[in-house]
Amino acid sequence: MPAIAATAPGKIILFGEHAVVYGQPAIAVPVIQVQVRAVVTPAIKAPTGQIEISAPDIQLHGVLKELPFDHALNQAIQLTLKELGLSTHPAFNLKISSSIPLAAGLGSGAAVSVAVIRSVSKFLGRPMADERVNALTYEIEKIHHGTPSGIDNTVITYEKPVFFIREQVIQTVNVKTPFTLVIGDTGIPSPTAITVGDVRKYWQADPEKYETLFNACGEIANDAHAAIENGAVDKLGPLMNENQQRLVEMGVSSPELNILIDAATVAGAWGAKLSGGGRGGNMIALIGPEQASHVAEALKTAGATNTIITKVSHV
Ligand code: PMV
């Protein structure tokens, strides 16, 4: 049995985070500059069925059965074995490496699941179809997120820009005119489960305010979808700014995110907003390609711990 590798990209949410949990549309795109890589190699001398895991980025090294049952990695492998209907399998080693920052809104959890499910199922001779990879990753996302919308697993599995509405058929986005984004990391980890849980509490306390905000985000995502498909890139900056305003009102921005968003705007970005769960993690700014390094520098000066320049185009 040869070694088998699989990769999965990061992702950002362009429009509609949080509102998407409540049935509104959102748009997400893959970020191929960062990725998770999972490599499975046969462990010829190990007892049948043993799985040894090494994930140096999270200082994890040991045999799978010593991990808690609800650990995301344990779940990814157990769900894969169950899906394949395998009660026994040859021993293997699984090595996971990642350049996607953790808890930063770039989809690291979903990317690990996708890469693990793909590499393990392929190693066992039964490569899994995207639809099932997506469904299993969604189950694991519930451990990370509590009540995920399903957008992260979808964009990462299919590696295409998606217009996503919860529990509806997946729509890929036709990007008529490519555009450039700079992603800036606040360096502050912010687990999505916490921000999603907080928004739920705020919504329960003031449903009218929050439903108005969610509807407004849904309209913005619809307008952005039309603009992207029509090549009207000039409309996207103002829509990003508007979306950011609604996210501020939702209570999920933070002083650090606001500083980076302002810095990008002052440096000439056409629009900027937080991306993902908020309170920390990453922000994104829409820029002309010739401004990219200037805006990235401005973000670093304003405190970004990392920046990524990425082009969104039709895949
Ligand atoms: O994983 P994050 O931080 O990019 O957040 C995902 C987007 C949310 O809308 C906040 C949650 C969800 O499940 O859609």
Topology of this protein?
Layout: E1 4-15, E2 26-42, E3 51-55, E4 60-63, H1 72-84, E5 92-98, H2 108-123, H3 130-145, H4 151-158, E6 162-164, E7 171-172, E8 179-185, H5 192-205, H6 207-230, H7 236-250, H8 255-266, E9 271-275, E10 282-287, H9 292-301, E11 306-312
Parallel strand pairs: 3-5
Antiparallel strand pairs: 1-2, 2-5, 2-6, 3-4, 6-7, 8-10, 8-11, 9-10
This protein binds (3R)-3-hydroxy-3-methyl-5-(phosphonooxy)pentanoic acid.
What does this structure look like?
Helix 3 (130-145) packs antiparallel against helix 4 (151-158). The chain contains nine helices and eleven strands. Strands 1, 2, 3, 4, 5, 6 and 7 form a seven-stranded mixed sheet that branches. It has a four-stranded antiparallel sheet with strand order 9-10-8-11. It is an alpha+beta fold and 315 residues long. A hairpin with a 6-residue loop joins strand 9 and strand 10 (282-287). It has helices at 72-84, 108-123, 130-145, 151-158, 192-205, 207-230, 236-250, 255-266, 292-301; strands at 4-15, 26-42, 51-55, 60-63, 92-98, 162-164, 171-172, 179-185, 271-275, 282-287, 306-312. The model has no long low-confidence stretch (mean pLDDT 95). (3R)-3-hydroxy-3-methyl-5-(phosphonooxy)pentanoic acid is lined by residues 13, 17-18, 20-21, 105, 107, 145, 148-149, 151-152, 192, 196, 276-277.
Please give a handful of descriptors for the protein shown:
315 residues, four-stranded antiparallel β-sheet, binds (3R)-3-hydroxy-3-methyl-5-(phosphonooxy)pentanoic acid
Ligands bound to this protein structure: (3R)-3-hydroxy-3-methyl-5-(phosphonooxy)pentanoic acid
Shape annotation: globular
What proportion of the residues is helical, as a percent range? 40-55%
Order of helices and strands: EEEEHEHHHEEEHHHHEEHE
Alpha-beta classification: alpha+beta
Q: What's the helix count?
A: 9
Please give the alpha-carbon distance between the first and last residues.
32 Å
Average predicted local confidence, pLDDT: 95
Strand content: 15-25%
Give the number of DSSP strands.
Answer: 11
